Amino acid sequence: MLLGVAMLVFIMFQGLGDPARLMVGQTGDKKTLDNIRSELYLDQPKWKQFVLYLNDISPVSVYKKEDIQKKQLKGFFFGGDTKIGLKIPYLRQSYQTKENVGTVLLRALPGTILLSVAAMLFAIIVGIFLGVLAAVKKGTWMDTSAIFASIVGISAPSFFMALVVAYLFGVVLHPYTGLDLTGSWFDIDEVTGEKYLTLKNLILPAFTLGIRPLAIITQLTRSSMLDILSQDYIRTAYAKGLSKRAVIFKHALRNALNPVVTAITGWFAELLAGAFFVEYIFGWKGIGKITVDALEKLDYPIVMGSVLLSACIFIVINIVADILYGIIDPRVK
Fold first, then answer.
1. pLDDT at 305
2. Helices (DSSP H) in the chain: which residue ranges?
């Protein structure tokens, strides 16, 4: 999967264009262009450029001694003039700032993780509660309200909800909520210049980002609980005299969580990798905002690195999901 993503990213951002021309603009002279093309291997055939790109982003790579020092690669290398080594993937340098792309993304990653975790916790707690409530109160106004709210949540795109929530709570109701239209997870002290955590700014983007997974989790929990509550062992548990609360939460809910875990892990991966518009609208300093800003400036190495990092997140979280299935439901093993 990663190989496929790397190939697609390379074709889109380097295989079809001229990064050297983007870096110097239309007024760049030929000598400058040639130097940049040589430095970025753009003077090589496309297939060789792709092989060199794979060599850079792969943890196991082969380099000449001078290239290791030039690129400031971090890892363990063995050999003479040509070395083989195990290294931290090298995502190359930003066209605009000449900063290492890996450093830029790692600086933005904590903001995205914080936002995604907060949004997912909100979605899990509220979604499972509403789903269980709707299943237990099937056919009542509570059930109907939960279903209607979840349909609205699924139908509304995140970028649209972000605009509505930002304007409503950050502008119209600002005197009452005290919440700002934009703001990141940290503020900077004007006197000392030090960063300090500002969780108040987390409320609006986390709420906005959590709306769609909340709706999915609510519906899945409800449908799964209704299926479990009709099973014979649930009736047996009631016949043994167990309380309704014990039957629902100890026996029914645990067995109903498998499809919910699928949704939670899948959506968490998407929140980590796809909070672009929400971060951009709320000015949240995370990978999404960094990537959108890079697209505006045609800073393709950052965009390429962001896509690769997002693919890695998806793969790792899906592996974690497979492990969780076995823990939650031993029948999967």
1. 93
2. 2-10, 19-24, 30-39, 46-57, 65-71, 101-136, 141-155, 158-167, 174-177, 203-229, 232-239, 244-246, 253-274, 276-282, 287-296, 300-328
Whether 96 maps to a domain, the answer reads: no
Q: How far is Cα 313 from Cα 80, in angstroms, rounded to an integer?
A: 35
Rounded to whole angstroms, the Cα distance separating 176 from 91 reads 45
State which of 35-49, 174-188, 290-304 shows the largest mean pLDDT: 290-304
**183 and 61 fall within a common domain:** no
**Same structural domain, 42 and 150:** no
| The pLDDT of residue 8 | 92
Q: Tell me the Ramachandran region of residue 180: left when phi exceeds 0, alpha when psi lies from -120 to 50, beta otherwise.
A: beta
- Are the C-beta atoms of 255 and 99 separated by less than 8 Å? no
Please check whether residue 302 is in contact with residue 105, taking contact to mean a CB–CB distance below 8 angstroms.
yes
Contacts of 95-100 with C-beta under 8 Å, sequence gap 24+, read 95/19, 95/22, 95/23, 95/297, 95/298, 95/299, 95/300, 95/301, 96/297, 96/299, 100/72
Q: What gap in Å lies between CA 317 and CA 124, rounded to an integer?
A: 16
The whole model's pTM is what?
A: 0.83
Q: Are residues 160 and 222 in the same domain?
A: yes
Asked if residue 128 and residue 27 are part of one domain, the reply reads no
Structure token digits, residue 243: 């309380």
Overall number of domains in the chain:
2
Q: How far does CA 155 lie from the centroid of its chain?
A: 20
pLDDT single digits (tens) 164-208: 888 898 888 888 888 888 888 777 777 777 777 788 888 999 999
Predicted confidence (pLDDT) at residue 275 exceeds the cutoff of 80: no
The amino acid sitting at 8 is: L
Q: Which amino acid is at 131?
A: G
CB environment 122-135: b (16+ within 10 A), e (fewer): bbbeebbebbbbbb
